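The aim of this short unit is practical: by the end, you should be able to scan a pair of folded records and say something sensible about each. We start with the first protein, listed as its amino acid sequence and then its structure tokens.
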Amino acid sequence: MSRYASNGEGPTVASIEFKQMVKALHKAGIEVILDVVYNHTNENDDEHPYTTSFRGIDNLVYYMVNLKSYVQLLNFSGCGNSFNCNHPVVKELVLDSLRHWVTEYHVDGFRFDLASSLCRDTDGTPLQSPPLIRAIAKDPVLSKCKLIAEPWDCGGLYQVGNFPNWDRWGEWNGMYRDAIRRFVKGDPGMKSSFATRLSGSADLYNVNKRKPYHSINFITAHDGFTLFDLVAYNEKHNDANGEDGRDGSNDNFSWNCGFEGETNDFSINALRQRQMKNFLLALMLSQGTPMVLMGDEYAHTRFGNNNSYGHDSLINHFQWNQLRSKHTDQFRFFAGIIRLRRRHPLLGRANFLLEEDVTWHEDQWDNPDGRFLSFTLHERDLGGGDLYAAFNAHSYFVNTILPSPPDGKHWYRLVDTNLTSPDDFVEEGVPGVLGTYNVAPFSSLLLHAKA
């Protein structure tokens, strides 16, 4: 894309600079996952046709159509048309495109937008074994890449946990996102679901040879609210998008903590800070692959816009000045918790938790009013020391009895999201944690057992 080139120097320079970028990222130990959209094209719908390529070449081959009319385009993408990816000709085009990105640009994998649309036949019927998805999983080049599906489409095909995978495909875990959002904001009856998602969603992914890392865990993404907006808005505010507020999801499971939008109220802002830290801690303690949204580390806001793709403005631009000045405490917390995740062997396990790996300090799973959950991850033969975590989504303090640490060890406080920086995260741990701990409203706690 020409505009991505330095000084507007054109597509050739953009291509070269992309390759240079990938090399630089690889040198820094960072892999590159390319977000790809093969579910639709720019050629719009039947009411507003915009013929630039495939519609003029062979409409019936390249698009899903209503077979009764052979004219009406089917729309499972929300963008007016649906690419006919399981037609042999179209399938090869997509495969060639993907291989080009790997062999020419050396990307490490792909995230497939609305991937369930790629699981439909020419007439839109869902396929149990879609040829394109299988071909990607079996391809000698592509099968070595990271393959991530957004396992739903705009036609109602929801495949979280059962996307055709051949033990190769990972999935954006939409059930994880919803359960974590709802528990942390204090919805009733979410304790059991919260625990299941923290544990790696074995109910969805412990099948055949799939692993916890096939669950891509996330709270926020480029679609929807940012993390700050998740705790600052109850409703979407999409008027600037020019669609009279019809666009964007209405089901955000958000909570504004007492005021819609930005405010100078100290108590509301303090609560929002706690909630953002609670979300991150839950994400980084969860088994599976964590995904964070760029800008959440400094509390980026889109001012309640949850469908901002069309804005080339501060709504979407990374605000370096805010990272450096306004939200240094949040950035510090993010960096520390991510560091903990990468270093501690009990987090990010390759296999699903066994019964002896975790103790749930809970005997009221079915109580819908229960909004407190604590558990201990046991080091067993992995080392690193036990971890005790507690999440309180009640509006009051919970004075909880702590389990005894292993023999010869003591509890050290790593995280208390109710505390201000730098006490909210202390990497070496704070000693002196004894038999009980008074967990503040809407806060979370992490303890580490060590000698």
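Turning to the second protein, read its sequence before its tokens, just as you did above.
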Amino acid sequence: MASSMIVAGLGLAAVGFGARFVMRGMPTLGKKMAEAVNSLPKMDSTTLANSKYYKGGFEPKMTKREAALVLNVSPNANTQRVRGAYKKMMLTNHPDRGGSPYLSSKLSEAKDILEK
């Protein structure tokens, strides 16, 4: 009985010291959070315009360069690499699996252009 009382007392002391530590750190934590929020990049049109992603939609007639960008391969990639990239992309973008019919048609068009 006495040992359980000692353990309970030590547990309460640990909780108390932990709460004291947290309460003393709250003012600095607030300042750090404010600095972190202020240092986040702004999401405006200029930031988005300078992103690393391909800007613009599809061209009216697909070129070899655009086909290579769509399949994420080199424009002079061999047929085996083109087919592998096409298969991998179609697994995630096939209309039967919830993908877009438009994107799957563009993938097929890109594969046909790069295989020629």
